[in-house]
Amino acid sequence: MAKLPINENFFKNRLAIxxxxxxxxxxxxxxxxPPRAHYKITFMKLKNKIAIxxxxxxxxxxxxxxxxxxxxAKVVIADINxxxxxxxxxxxxxxxxxxxxxxxxxxxxLQVKNLIKTxxxxxxxxxxxxxxxxxxxxxxxxxxxxxxxxxxxxINLKGPFLCSKYAIPIMKKNKSGIIINIDSELxxxxxxxxxxxxxxxxxxxxxxxxxxxxxxxxxxxxxxxxPGPIDTPLLRKSFLDKKELENYIQNHTLMKRLGKPEEVxxxxxxxxxxxxxxxxxxxxxxxxxxxx
Length: 292
Ligand SMILES: NC(=O)c1ccc[n+]([C@@H]2O[C@H](COP(=O)([O-])OP(=O)(O)OC[C@H]3O[C@@H](n4cnc5c(N)ncnc54)[C@H](O)[C@@H]3O)[C@@H](O)[C@H]2O)c1
Description:
Distance between the termini: 43 Å
Largest sheet: 7 strands, parallel
Strand order of the largest sheet: 3-2-1-4-5-6-7
Order of helices and strands: HEHEHEHEHEHEHHHE
CATH topology of the largest domain: Rossmann fold
Structural class: alpha/beta
CATH superfamily of the largest domain: NAD(P)-binding Rossmann-like Domain
Low-confidence stretches: 1-6
Number of domains: 2
Helix content: 40-55%
Mean pLDDT: 91
Bound molecules: nicotinamide-adenine-dinucleotide
Shape: globular
Strand content: 5-15%
């Protein structure tokens, strides 16, 4: 807490000295000051918090990792993309903040257990888990291969389940923790071309709510964020060409533009910080009007 010299004589003396040196008259006016606690200045919203971000090597996860680090968190980047993950780690360290990369496929229980163990080994705690790793696959029910359906469900739905499963016991012990699932507008509003993706994200909304119902009593807040079309490699890959993407933007977003990963990260930061202390089981759209 910043110490402020709220002593009347201090101000009177300073004013008298300054006024004398400028050769002007002064009048001291007494004003009511609020209690000291009101002067509490928090420079960093996540100071010393330990945050795991899955899929932190790219796009939205990367933006969250960088923002969290700037806000004082020690960030663990978990991803299957080793080169990308290490690059984000280096970038954060260059900012003078703490981060480290753990190679982890969120579908593999042993790798998720290792992620938790490694995080505890290094930082002794887990305050925040952002379940962000995800993929998008196109294809109607008839067109999609069963193995693609399974892969998509595994990464988008089982991944958050597994990471939460192994992080929750630590949070329960601490009687505090925050879990944020990165969902999608398509979890709220379905589209015909990607039923499996829509189903995985609709499932994640209910996983979020069910976890909030169970774990709020242990001091764990669970929420989810539903991005609309955000300019990331995942989005770019899901369109055939620039023309198809441009048509989509014009017809599906009210703001007539793609969102930036940082615009999602800002909402994730809100949910990860004390600013959202009374927010539980919520579904936050960050979609530029996509789902309206
Ligand atoms: N970009 C969008 O328009 C958009 C819209 C709605 C929702 N989302 C969601 O946001 C999340 C992040 O997507 P993005 O757009 O930043 O994509 P992205 O492809 O840029 O990043 C996803 C990251 O997840 C990682 N990943 C994939 N499978 C993994 C696995 N099994 N284990 C660990 N890491 C894995 C990738 O390596 C990558 O680094 C996803 O859950 C996605 O469904 C994105």
